[in-house]
Each structure stands twice: as C-alpha cells, then as structure tokens.
C-alpha cells in the first residue's frame, strides 16, 4: 500500500551546505569576504592604526610644506612703531603704500609692520605693563635681523640710542644717498650711546655714584616735516631710526625717502 506523508527530498550535491569550518582554518581572503563593511573598517584600524597615523602625519607635513612654498612671501623690510599709535589709514600707508610706491610685487613680497610695542619707565603710563614684552620682542628681532626701521617717540629713541642699536644716520645717508642727506640734514638728530656704566653694580650697592662712558652721534631723523606723519597730527615728535645690524639698509633708506615723498 502506498504510504502518505512527507517524503524526504533529496538535495542535489551542489545544494548541500559545506561542512562547518573554524575561523582559524579560513584563509585571509575568506575571512575578509565574510566580514561586513563595518567589521572590515575595524579590522583595518586594529591592525594598521600605527602606519595609518604615521602616513597621515607625513601627508600633513608634505601638504603644509607645499602650502608654505606656494604662499611664501619675502619680507622686504621690517618696521616697528614704538610708543607710536596710528590709525588704519596711516598703517596702510606705512605698509602696503610703500610697496606700491616701490612697484613691489605684493603677491611675492610683503612688509612687516610691528605695532603695539611700548617702552616706558613711567609706571603711571597706561602702557607700562607692555614694556617687558616689548623689550623681549626687540631683542629677538635684533638677534634674528628682523628689525630694520624704527618709528618712535623721544623716550623710545633714548632707549634705542643708549643701547647702541641705531646706525649713524648721517654717515649712512652720506654714503648711500648724498642727495637725500642734503635735503634732510637739518632734520638729523643726535643722541647718546652708553658704552659702559656701573648701573649693575649700583643694584647691589646703593652708595655708589653713577658713572658712565658715553659717545654722541647722529642717530635719527625728525619726521615732523614728513608729509604723512605731519598730516597725522601727532602731539609728540616722531623719530626715524635705522637699526645698526640691518641687512636691508638700502631699502631702509628708500623707506625714509618715501616718508618725505622725495
């Protein structure tokens, strides 16, 4: 008699499931194929995070180097305003205005104009708190030859003069631009450089009398008759000085000529 009920279905050989295999027995390709996308990402990070991090750092350094090379500008002059505050219009004249006047390609060159520098021994002066920071900036700029021209009031002029930071402006102009010297010789201002003194000794012995060895020579130009400075209406005289160790003295002289519009 024919039996009724479910019959066992014979599966073709190719439909039969492969026998279970342990993870250790799978090849690397088989392991990779069996992973989800998230698991693959985690696998890559777990095993290759160090070389990935190193690669990203190297990529950043290469990109930054290329960027700096493409955007780099040569500084034609470093100018500092010390104890001198200017408005945005005059600041532009002292910076971009000079470059335009000289026909300098501003896509490849720039002028560094230091502002907000103050030197004063007057503790009641509102800017006295900036004096120490400014001294450090001045020393760093001098040491790296990144300070060429200084526009300053009398107190700052005295400080630069006493430390011997300024060129003999008379000798420099006579050597580089005699015609400009002839036009400005009445505006030349001398000051005193301290060659040696006993100021440090007096710190430890207040009974000592101050003694110093000094020299005096022409160090600056009075800018009272320089057009853009005169028109700015400064209450105090502004002085122009060229730093003694500048490697850009010809450009510094050109800057002085520009200020007087010669």
Structure commentary:
With 262 residues, this protein is of the alpha/beta class. It has two domains: 48 residues, no CATH class; 186 residues, D-Maltodextrin-Binding Protein, domain 2 (3-Layer(aba) Sandwich). It is built from ten helices and six strands. Strands 2-1-3-6-5-4 form a six-stranded mixed sheet, with helices on both faces. β1, α3 and β2 form a beta-alpha-beta unit. The radius of gyration is 36 Å and the shape is elongated. The model has no long low-confidence stretch (mean pLDDT 87).
Shape, per Cα inertia axes: elongated
Number of domains: 2
CATH architecture of the largest domain: 3-Layer(aba) Sandwich
- The amount of beta strand, in percent, is 15-25%
Strand numbers in spatial order across the main sheet: 2-1-3-6-5-4
Which percent bin holds the helix content? Answer: 40-55%
- Weakly predicted, low-confidence segments: none
- Helix count equals 10
State the end-to-end distance. Answer: 128 Å
CATH topology label of the largest domain? D-Maltodextrin-Binding Protein, domain 2
What number is the mean pLDDT? 87
CATH top level of the largest domain is Alpha Beta
How many distinct beta strands? 6
Q: Structural class from helices and strands?
A: alpha/beta
Q: What's the helix and strand layout?
A:
Blueprint: H1 28-34, H2 37-71, E1 74-82, H3 88-102, E2 109-117, H4 131-143, E3 149-152, H5 154-162, H6 169-176, H7 178-184, E4 188-197, H8 199-204, E5 212-222, H9 227-232, E6 239-242, H10 249-259
Parallel strand pairs: 1-2, 1-3
Antiparallel strand pairs: 3-6, 4-5, 5-6
Helix pairs in contact: 6-7
